[in-house]
Design goal:
The complex is a heterodimer of chains A (182) and B (185).
Chain A: H1 15-24, H2 34-42, H3 46-58, E1 62-69, E2 78-84, H4 91-99, E3 104-109, E4 121-127, H5 130-144, E5 164-175
Antiparallel strand pairs in A: 2-4, 2-5, 3-4
Helix pairs in contact in A: 2-3
Chain B: H1 41-50, H2 60-67, H3 72-84, E1 88-95, E2 103-109, H4 116-124, E3 129-135, E4 141-147, H5 151-164, E5 169-171, E6 175-176
Helix pairs in contact in B: 2-3
The chains are: A alpha+beta (182), B alpha+beta (185).
Chain lengths: 182, 185
């Protein structure tokens, strides 16, 4: 399966940018002047830290500076990993549209592994009830209806090949965070 | 879950030696049940507003307070409480994981039910496994492998296959789309 791996180019960051990431990847302090706190630690002016922050935002290194709620504590108890077998030619256009739906938290194109796995688009949905995530799946299906692929059943396999599915999680087996190493 | 942005990272104070995959290991088979938080009107407004992003300026909470007809002190107090009670799992810059170095993939196994606990232990024993979820499908175990170098991914996959005797479905991301997740309260 290694031929499907895409080696991502490693974007280079300056020493100052790396220091900024190391100082803020665990979050900004919730105090009156959070950037003063960063500026003190980096021995830079506050203006320079704000400029650096804006530059990182413009370049997409920082996606946004925001609060991330815990889904579960807000009552979003249900999630579904919806998976779709869509026309490769149209995949980027439709993947982009699915990602913009407000209830989708992650959206990726991934490789198929036929015949075991025919889905190339993954979209994670979150809702407060099982009915909600079923409805969201339906909304995505509506959006993708023209590009869904229908495959003939492979008689050598003991499972049916469908154009889409939703995998719900029944247990967290392990959960860690991701961090920049020094 | 399988995000390679840092949106699911729980906040930890500075770790001495930051690595790609060491924080907050949850216990095996943690069932998904959580207490839903009780929130004040200000809490709800803050959660709704701050998911979209906060302004980059010297006193961002003063600006937010003005927008919500509150005071800077109240906003700061409520946000700190929301963070302590883990209603907010994070506040700050969300970095594109590509810039944090390391390599990631989402992978799955089709585990026979009777072997599930044993295979869970085997898979979780690799420190490179960042997240692991049980899911409703023939492929019933889905995990994120996070490594420092790209070629280590293949080695971990081979090692998992040797240890479990099962074939790993490897689905690295080919393209990531911008997401507009918004969880209104």
């Amino acid at each position: 399966m290694s031929d499907n791996n895409i080696i991502q180019e490693k974007p280079t960051l300056t020493a100052i940018e790396r220091q900024y990431i190391l100082l803020t990847q665990n979050g900004l302090p919730i105090i009156e002047k959070p950037y003063h706190h960063i500026a003190d630690q980096m021995e830079m002016s506050v203006a320079a830290v704000l400029a650096l922050t804006n530059d990182l935002l413009d370049r997409g290194v920082i996606r946004r500076i925001a609060a991330v709620p815990n889904h579960y504590k807000l009552g979003y108890l249900y999630n579904g990993m919806t998976v779709w077998d869509i026309d490769d030619e149209q995949a980027e256009k439709f993947g982009d549209a699915v990602g913009r739906l407000p209830f989708v938290s992650h959206c990726y194109l991934r490789p198929r592994h036929l015949p075991q796995w025919n889905y190339n688009l993954f979209a994670m949905v979150h809702g407060k009830t099982p009915e909600a995530i079923a409805k969201y799946r339906g909304q995505i299906k509506e959006l993708l209806k023209e590009v869904l692929v229908t495959r003939n059943h492979d008689l050598s396999q003991d499972f049916m090949t469908k154009s889409n599915d939703m995998l719900t999680s029944t247990a967290i087996l392990k959960k860690t965070g991701l961090r920049l190493k020094r | 879950m399988d995000n390679t942005t840092l949106s699911s990272s729980t906040a930890n104070k500075t770790a001495d030696k930051t690595t790609t995959n060491v924080m907050n290991t949850a216990t095996n088979n943690e069932k998904i049940c959580h207490e839903v938080a009780e929130l004040s009107a200000l809490d709800k407004s803050l959660i709704n507003l701050l998911q979209h992003g906060v302004p980059v300026c010297e006193r961002p909470f003063e600006q937010i307070a003005n927008e919500l007809n509150s005071t800077e002190a109240e906003v700061i107090r409520h946000l700190n409480e929301l963070k302590e009670s883990r209603v907010l799992s994070r506040f700050g810059p969300m970095f594109d994981a590509v810039y944090l170095g390391g390599a990631f993939t989402l992978a799955a196994l089709a585990v026979p039910d009777e072997d599930f606990d044993q295979v869970t232990e085997q898979v979780n024993s690799f420190e490179q496994i960042a997240h692991n979820y049980r899911r409703t499908h023939r492929f019933n175990m889905w995990f994120v492998i996070a490594t420092e170098e790209a070629d280590e991914i293949e080695r971990v996959i081979t090692a998992i296959e040797e240890k479990t005797g099962l074939s790993v479905l490897n689905t690295p991301k080919l393209k990531e789309f911008y997401v507009g997740l918004y969880l209104p309260v």
